[in-house]
Amino acid sequence: MAVQRIMESNAEYSRRVEGAVPTPAAADGVLSALPPAVPISHKVDLGLWNGQELVAFADVILGWPTASVAHIGLLMTDGARQGEGLGRMMHDAVVDLAGRRPGIKSLRLAIVDTNADLAAPFWTKLGYEPTGEAVPYVSGSVQSTARIWVRPVAVAQVLHE
Q1: Quick one: fold of 2-152?
Q2: From CA 140, how far away is CA 84, in angstroms rounded?
Q3: In the chain, what percentage of residues exceed pLDDT 90?
Q4: How are strands ordered across the β-sheet holding 129-139?
Q5: Which of 53, 79, 82, 123 could staple 128 via S-S, CB 3.0–4.6 A?
Q6: Is the bond leading into 65 cis (omega within 30 degrees of zero)?
Q7: CB 90, CB 75: distance < 8 Å
């Protein structure tokens, strides 16, 4: 499966946020995960393809945790192709999706502290800012904190180039 291949190409991410390399069912977990009481119709999985090869993936929950928010659960690029702008292109597709949904005003995500040194600079460049909200995070052998970051869907100019 294409999503599984991308996840396996990012084994270091999995080590940082779960404490181990991706399991053989990792992609199934991402593709089926939903917050409690959120209908499957609110979940959108997007892919960026280069021919037959999936090179980036995003998992988005529309209207969660409030009706005006689209939550990015995961945005990942092919590990061998990082630095090629694929993450930004995948994010552009997420922004386009959110912008076409009536009532969605902001994008939201969580950065786990054990991955923040790599993730925070990327999300900062895309206009996200921490809200100050933090929640306990436990996955696999990792016990950490997840910090919530947001940005408006419509941004006139991202200043952090």
Answers
A1: Aminopeptidase (3.40.630)
A2: 30
A3: 93
A4: 43-50, 53-62, 69-77, 106-112, 142-152, 129-139
A5: 123
A6: yes
A7: yes
Distance from C-alpha of 60 to C-alpha of 129, rounded to nearest angstrom: 18
Residue whose tokens read 């945790």: 65
As a residue count, the chain comes to 161
- Statement: residue 147 has pLDDT above 90: yes
For residue 12 the two structure tokens come to 């270091």
Q: How many CB atoms lie within 10 A of CB 67?
A: 11
The model's pTM is: 0.92
CA distances, 32 to each of 40, 41, 149, 159 (Å): 9, 12, 23, 35
Separation between Cα atoms, residue 49 and residue 57, nearest integer Å? 9
C-beta separation of 60 from 93 below 8 A = no
